[in-house]
Amino acid sequence: MIDLKALLKNLLFISEGEGYVEFKENFDKERDGKNISAISNIALLKGKEFGYIVYGIEDKTKKVIGTKFNPNNEFFGNQNIKMWYSQKITPKLDLEYLEIEYEGKNIVIIKIPSASDKPIEFDSKAYIRIGESTTTLSKYPELERKIWNNEKNKNFEKQLASNNLKVDEILKLLDYDKYFQLSKQELPTETSKFLEKMNQDNLVKLNNDGTYNITVLGAILFARNIENFSIIKRKTIRVITYDGTTKVKRKNDIEGKYGYAIGFEGLIDYIISQVGNNEEITKALRKNTKIYPEIALREFIANAIIHQDFSVTGTGSLIEIYSNRIEITNPGVPLIDTERFIDHPPRSRNEDLASLMRRFGFCEESGSGVDRALINIELYQLPAPKFETFDDFTKITLYTPRPLKDMTKDDKIRACYQHCVLMYIKMEEKMTNKSLRERLNIPETNYPAASKIISDTLKAGKIKEGERSKEYIPWWA
To answer: Into which CATH architecture does domain 411-477 fall?
Structure first.
């Protein structure tokens, strides 16, 4: 139970300039409705669970003078003040009306919970306390953004990238035409209908005053220029092409400016233009085939974009192209073990982003994309890709063709494990010496080389023997 006298004594020591405590002599429904909104919002920004309006105290002197305000007897039409505020304040707040006698005078306290996942509005407008004044929150967009971006609301995609915009401002910032093209919807004839559709996918949000907010999801996917949005301007995709196998000499260094959905196809085309052809002739390929299968590039780059940790500040996805490999790096560590990338259903921090990227056809559903990428890498007879995690980033490395004699022991074990997984989950078969020889292009006469790789992979704990002799399955099967 609240010790009301102790609470009041504590509140009397707090300056009104803090914003989350307001002292009044008597009640005014309109003025104090705005104050409830303002105090709830500033309480969140101040890290306070509650704010307060205290009636019966002079605001300057803190002198106890008492109040005639009685929440139970205050009516407007046939509505009590408590019911009236419950309809006027959105989202709804569980306001507490506390009454005490202090120094022989009647004191009333309204205890106001702090805002949670969005600004608190009174009569369709949000307010904020600045010093000792109450004003509309829309005048302070940075504070409004902080409320949307607070620790209680950790879904980065739903946070605000820009707010209180008119329809024509939204259409200048976002490529709405590309959105309708990718979502396979007919372009509306009325401009106002554009944003109704985008609102359904949480790309924009309609405010009660008819203005719109752009969410991070909307900006990160459809920004005409990501740098127009300070919250994501460091999340562009950078591509560096090196001359050779080291970072010593750069040939090209570009950084995308478009939202991911707008720029994805151009990004893939650019990367393909930077790599050479596969000059080796295999049973699956013709001459002049690009070194890396496009399916693999699309899947791994899309996954880097989707699964990045946006809380890692100051950096976005990075693609580095060397003469013998491509390294795809994204901020954050994965939510599943790298060894289970192939068979495990995808888990993402950014579910809305992942859902739309898959819906727009940039990557596959249900984890099948990584499987398909690896199947094509085997078809191209490329070395097995490497999946690595570090303190705050994840890296995937794709390699150019390399003969078996130039592969390290780790390269061979990795290829054996990945091949075993694909056989098990995609072909519903078991890996054998024969299937591994076909994967690594080992002649039949050199079956001992495949046996040695299988033996090393068994010792590494990556695979185990199946029920039948000379057949192998993943360690987790």
So the answer is: Orthogonal Bundle (1.10)
